[in-house]
Design a protein that fits this description.
- The complex is a heterodimer.
- Chain A is α+β, with helices and mostly antiparallel strands.
- The radius of gyration of chain A is 27 Å and the shape is globular.
- Chain A is built from 23 helices and 30 strands.
- The N and C termini of chain A lie far apart (about 60 Å).
- In chain A, α12 (about 350-355) runs parallel beside α13 (about 390-405) and α14 runs antiparallel to α15 (about 435-445).
- The longest helix of chain B has 11 residues, at about 30-40.
- Chain B has a single domain, classed as Ubiquitin-like (UB roll).
- By secondary structure, chain B is α+β, with helices and mostly antiparallel strands.
- The relative contact order of chain B is 0.24.
- Helices cover about 30% and strands about 25% of the residues of chain B.
- Classes of the chains: A alpha+beta, B alpha+beta.
- The interface of A and B includes residues 178, 193, 353, 433 and 471 of A.
Chain lengths: ~775, ~80
């Protein structure tokens, strides 16, 4: 087989059927060489003349009233140029406002950036200092005297819900309950979703299973800590370089927290060393701006790993109770899910999303999901892949495993029997459009992994997962250069290969080689607004804008060719990267490069721009198979084989898609087996580093096999669905189901660490 | 008439707990306007970064999305993500 034939043969049936030329191929990533050679500039790499070093002073207490802050000694230290405390930030009202992806309480955000009257978690910022050297800044930070009154703390959601628990906020009254409470509470809100009548549903069930589950808060574990540089000038402008998932988000948040006009803030995104949702907020940037304003110099602030663990958002952990009822043939008739999620120090866990996603893959006529958002003395929770969904899926998919065993039914067959399809009314209300859940189950059932024999102390688990995926406000510009190369300019940091997918889609639409397309990511002053990179939205939504911008470029290219040929534009077609003169009948063509070469003579620069609020994201479903071997002597669980299967719509660059599936699975496996925060008796974090907070590394895991299922999203030019969220949803239950099978004991509390598993085995 | 479904918390706070309503409207903005005429104050809640699913398609920040006479319109929390 020749090289060309082989490449074609490797394309998916979907890609072949649609005749795509570039979509579905695997070109070398545009940012790859710079990153592997260390030349790429990340947040901490920015250097400016006269730059100061900022150091943050953090609370050593989990919960404490701040009685006083004395900065006198620090300010007297030679080389210290500025100190900031809460007195340097404006007070912001309690109303939530739209920003980024979801409603944001800027009051809470400001108080998370800089504590006011109370420190609410170990690591909460209470002051910051800027000095001429890191050593002086560290010394100055140690000279800032903060007097605290230590208060009782609470770390666990169910403990925080008890009547005698220490209350974090005296002005928080539970929303969503009737009657409205008169007493302040750590429960900020109750959510409820459902349909039908669960009492009637359970009454008609032949078999009922129920169980309690617990999952811990886990960190996103991005390799690059938060870092930024801010430079302010006397005209009131602030320029910020930082590691972020959204430069426009940083601009908005900084302007609000610092009391500035948005037009006074310009944000330049650095390369980003991982985010996974954890860089959709601000921590350091407002501090750096205010320090720079006071010092009159640029200020760099960089977190170390311990800062990241102590002070930045993990995703929520919490508790879940799940009950499922079914007929003898496996037909689900009722489901109940109650969850309490830890929001951290301020309201806003993703428990409502857990409620919406838990039962979403299934047809269940009677269901009820109730969620409680609970504040505790931990860092404010931040987004993490498919926020809220993994813990809910852990409960539901584990309960389904229990049900399959009770019914003596194959776990995939049970899921197939009840799987949501197009037209199914989702547990959160609306009906699904075209989805590919059943296709993932078929692929799992037919995969050699599923029928491979198991050895002693080995077990196999299966679990599925769902995520909505989102679109949102997006912008793109496409510029044709004089030599016929093309620049695709977007304003979304590349956290998962979006440069490559933008380049591929542009090349496909324009009909040119992908090597002729240069994808660029620009700052807030150089692009129209684009919502942040997150929610698996960029390839879908920003990709749509790239396609539309390319369409506009093609219109111009046809117009220029028409001028050159002296024909009407309707006589010119755009075919495979060239204008074709249909009027002459001679097969005359002009390539994109030929038209670009003379653009100056035919009307000037050729460029297209597109902005829109893109909707129509196609939901995603995945099914994972996990094999685990358990050591009954030590309690250690080792993942020996893992297969992640997902409907991705259309894989624009299959290698990146497979990487997303593998990465999400690895993070979910860590959540299931290893990861948890360890606090001392005072509520202070003890394992703020990767040696003690154990995320899986490559040597811990087998090669994760992937199966890319393609059920194209009808709302996207090339059928794209979001990819990055779903793969972290099934692993918690897939691993737990596998360990439970291997050890013959139900593991319902995460992480399934060796001591916990050993205790469960011993307790059988 | 389009079928309109409110989140239970919103229904409890503004509509005596009644989640389902029938409204004839051309778009989401009109739906909210009519709901507000019936349940004063509900518009502020529904306009505050609430998502809407119209016939199964979720719109994160809706305003002018078309509503058909037989549409199903669900008001949902906005969906943030990683």
């Amino acid at each position: 087989m020749g090289k060309e034939e082989k490449q074609f043969d490797e394309l998916s049936p979907n890609v072949q059927a649609n005749g795509y030329r570039v979509v579905g191929t695997r070109p070398v990533r545009p940012d790859g060489i710079e990153k592997v050679t260390g030349k790429a500039n990340f947040g901490a790499d920015c250097e400016l003349p006269g730059m100061l070093t900022g150091v943050v002073v953090r609370s050593p207490h989990a919960h404490a009233k701040i009685l006083s802050i004395d900065t006198t000694r620090a300010m007297k230290l030679k080389g210290v140029k500025a100190v900031v405390t809460s007195a340097d930030f404006p007070e912001i009202g309690p109303k939530q406002r739209g920003a980024g992806e979801a409603p944001v309480s800027f009051r809470d955000m400001s108080r998370n950036v800089m504590a006011r009257d109370k420190a609410l978690y170990d690591g909460h910022t209470v002051a910051a200092v800027a000095a001429t050297t890191p050593a002086i800044a560290e010394k100055a930070a140690s000279l800032i005297e903060v007097k605290y009154k230590v208060l009782p703390y609470v770390l666990d959601a169910r403990e925080a819900m008890k009547s005698k628990a220490p209350v974090l906020h005296k002005d928080v009254f539970t929303k969503g309950v009737d009657p409205r409470p008169k007493k302040a509470s750590n429960v900020t809100q109750r959510f409820e979703f459902g349909m039908g009548d669960i009492d009637a549903g359970f009454a008609e069930a032949d078999v009922i299973v129920d169980h309690d589950f617990t999952a811990q808060c886990v960190h996103q574990g991005y390799i690059e800590p938060h870092a930024c540089v801010a430079n302010t000038t006397q005209d009131g402008m602030a320029t910020v370089w930082c590691s972020t998932q959204g430069q426009f988000m940083v601009r908005n948040y900084c302007a609000t927290v610092c009391g500035m006009d948005i037009s006074k803030v310009r944000v330049l995104p650095a390369e980003i060393g991982g985010g996974f949702g954890g860089k959709t907020v601000v921590y350091l940037e407002p501090l750096a701006i205010v320090l720079s304003q006071k010092a009159g110099k640029p200020v760099k602030v960089v977190m170390n790993r311990e800062d990241v663990f102590r002070a930045t958002g993990p995703t929520s952990g919490g508790h879940a109770y799940c009950r499922i009822g079914a007929k003898k043939d496996g037909t689900l008739v009722a489901g109940e899910l109650t969850m309490e999620y830890e929001a951290g120090a301020f309201a806003g866990s993703p428990v409502h999303l857990g409620c919406m996603t838990g039962f979403a893959p299934y047809v269940i006529p009677n269901s009820k999901s109730v969620g409680f958002d609970v504040v505790v003395n931990r860092p404010k929770a931040a987004a993490y892949r498919a926020p809220g969904a993994p813990v809910a899926a852990f409960a539901v998919e584990s309960a389904l495993d229990l049900l399959a065993k009770k019914l003596n039914m194959d776990p995939i067959a049970l899921r197939e029997k009840n799987a949501a399809t197009e037209g199914t009314k989702a547990a959160y209300g609306p009906k699904f459009q075209k989805i590919g859940y059943v296709e993932t189950l078929e692929a799992a059932k037919n995969h050699p992994h599923y029928s491979a024999p198991l050895g002693p102390n080995q077990g196999r688990g299966v679990a599925s997962g769902f995520w909505f995926n989102i679109g949102g406000e997006s912008s793109a510009a496409v510029h044709v250069n004089e030599d016929g190369t093309v620049e695709v300019v977007t304003a979304n940091p590349d956290i998962g290969g979006s440069r490559a997918s933008m380049g591929i889609m542009a090349a496909e639409v324009l009909g040119i080689d992908v090597s002729r397309v240069k994808p660029l990511i620009t700052d807030t002053a150089s692009s129209a607004y684009s919502a942040l990179t997150g929610g698996s939205r960029v390839t879908f939504a920003v990709g749509q804008m790239v396609c539309v911008a390319c369409d506009k470029v093609i219109v111009q290219l046809r117009e220029r060719a028409a001028k050159i040929w002296d024909v009407e534009v309707d006589d010119v077609e755009w075919v495979a990267g060239s204008a074709v003169n249909r009027k002459s009948g001679k097969g005359e063509t002009l390539s994109l490069a030929e038209i670009a070469n003379v653009a100056g003579k035919t009307g000037g620069p050729i460029s297209g721009q597109s902005s829109s609020d893109v909707q129509g994201a196609g939901p995603g479903f995945g099914t994972h198979i996990c094999d685990v071997e358990v050591d009954p002597e030590t309690g250690r669980s080792t993942v020996i084989r893992y297969t992640a299967i997902q409907d991705v719509g259309t894989a624009i660059h299959p290698s990146y898609v497979e990487g997303q599936l593998q990465g999400g699975a690895a993070q979910g496996i860590g959540w299931a087996l290893n990861e948890e925060y360890i606090y001392d008796a005072n509520g202070c974090l003890e394992n703020g580093g990767f040696l003690d907070y154990r995320m899986p590394v490559a040597s811990d895991l087998p090669m994760i096999d992937t199966v890319v299922v393609e059920v194209p999203n009808p709302n996207h030019r090339f059928g794209v669905r979001g990819v990055g969220e779903v793969p972290i949803v099934p692993p918690l239950a897939a691993v737990a189901n596998a360990v439970s099978a291997a050890a013959d004991v139900r593991m319902a509390d995460l992480p399934i660490s060796p001591p916990r598993l050993l205790a469960a085995i011993d307790g059988k | 008439m389009a079928k309109i479904v409110l989140q239970s918390e919103v229904a409890r706070d503004f509509a005596d707990g009644q989640a389902e309503h029938e409204i004839l409207a051309d778009n989401v903005r009109q739906v909210i306007k009519q709901l507000d005429a019936k349940f004063p104050g509900i518009a502020a809640r529904l306009n505050d970064r609430t998502a809407v699913a119209v016939d199964g398609e979720i719109f994160q920040d809706p305003f002018l999305q078309e509503v058909q006479p037989h549409s199903e319109v669900y008001f949902l929390p906005m969906i943030d993500a990683g």
